[in-house]
Amino acid sequence: MLVCKHAVIEDDEPTKCKLGLFNGFPEIADCMNCSQFSGMSRGLGDTVAKITKSVGIKPCGPCKKRQAALNKAIPYKKK
Fold it and tell me: Are 36 and 68 in contact (CB under 8 A)?
């Protein structure tokens, strides 16, 4: 399961969002598609974003859209 550092997990399910998103009570699908997700890579878009950030490239609006599109096109398997 992909875990975001902003989620409070109980019984392998996110029960609360520390950022207060999704009225504070996200579903797994909410966490998986959240623009503030911070955890293991959900797909190729997250991996590319981590690499570009590590070399000093700051993400912009179009970058976030490409990241989401790549995650949707090439998702990693959920554990």
Answer: no
Total-model pTM: 0.67
pLDDT in tens, 5-35: 888 878 777 778 888 888 888 877 787 778 7
Task: Assess whether 9 and 24 both reside in one domain.
Answer: yes
Are 37 and 43 contacting, i.e. CB atoms less than 8 angstroms apart? Answer: no
Q: Do the Cβ atoms of 3 and 39 come closer than 8 Å?
A: yes
**Which token pair is 7?**
């989620």
Q: Residue 75 pairs with which residues in a beta bridge?
A: 43
Gap between the Cα atoms of 55 and 72, Å rounded: 24
**Range of the structural domain that residue 17 is part of:** 1-40
